[in-house]
Amino acid sequence: MNTTSKTRKMIQITLLSVISFLLMYLIEFPLLAAAPYLKYDPSQVPTLIASFAFGPMAGLIAELIKSFLFFISGKSTSGIVGVSAAFVAGGTFTLSAGFIYKYMKTKKGALISLLVGTICMTIFMTIGNKFVFLPLWGIPAEAINGLLTSVIIPFNLIKGVLTSIITFLLYKRIHKLLG
To answer: Distance between CA 146 and CA 151 in Å, rounded?
Structure first.
């Protein structure tokens, strides 16, 4: 890869990171009435596109840039814990889907990678919430398991499916623009 193409790739990853940040900053809405504090934003779509187009590490870098920008923007109402949780969710989804798509660059491969990414994100966020994030938010230990089954798992599954649908519908169109 020559210097020009490396520079172009870095610019494209940065652009996808900034788009991801803007989506996180500007668009958010609750998915579950039982948990209005858990909000969906479509910011993982550009990071998944980066992961599919340039590899899983590019997607992870885009997630890191997006999370950093969101944290310093001051918009995060949940502070460093919320931004960290969002990074773990996005990073898990982006890495797992990106690794599978790297070896299966077909429509079927994209569907499989997005399904596996959704499942991995849900598992990681269930474990992360049980042992790290919910305790850091001061949730009593006796309430955590109930929250996991009634809110955390459904939220992450719905979030993953919605993000997967959007990514699947947009990727080929955007991939052509990325060259």
So the answer is: 8
